[in-house]
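User: Okay, second chain of the day. Same drill as before: sequence in, C-alpha cells out.
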Amino acid sequence: MAEDKLDPCISCGACCASLHVSFHRSQLVSEGGCVPDALADDETGETCRMRGTDRSPPRCVALVGKIGESVRCGIYEFRPDPCREFAPHGVFGILNSECSRVRQRYGLPPLSK
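Assistant: Same drill. C-alpha cells below.
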C-alpha cells in the first residue's frame, strides 16, 4: 500500500480506532461549538468524548471506511480540537510516536520523516 505523501491519513484511520478523544463541552453545537451533540458522550461536567472512543476496541463513531485502506472523518469540518491537533508522524516535520504506535496496532508500517 503506497501512502499518500500529502495526507497519509486518508489510507490509515488507526488513530480514530485507537485513541480516547476527550474535549471541552463548549465544542458541542448545543454549547456554541461545532461538534454534533449526538456524536458525543458526557465524560465529566466540563468534558465530553467522541462516542465510541471509550469502547474496547475503540472506534470513533465519525470514522467512515476500512482502517489501513481508505478512511475519512464523517464530520471533518466539525471535529473537536484533539482531532485537529493530532498530526501524522513526520508530516510538517512533526515527530509523533503515538501515530507510529497506533499504526503498528493495525499492522501498518510507521510513516517516514
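The chain has a mean pLDDT of 89.

User: Thanks, on to the next one.
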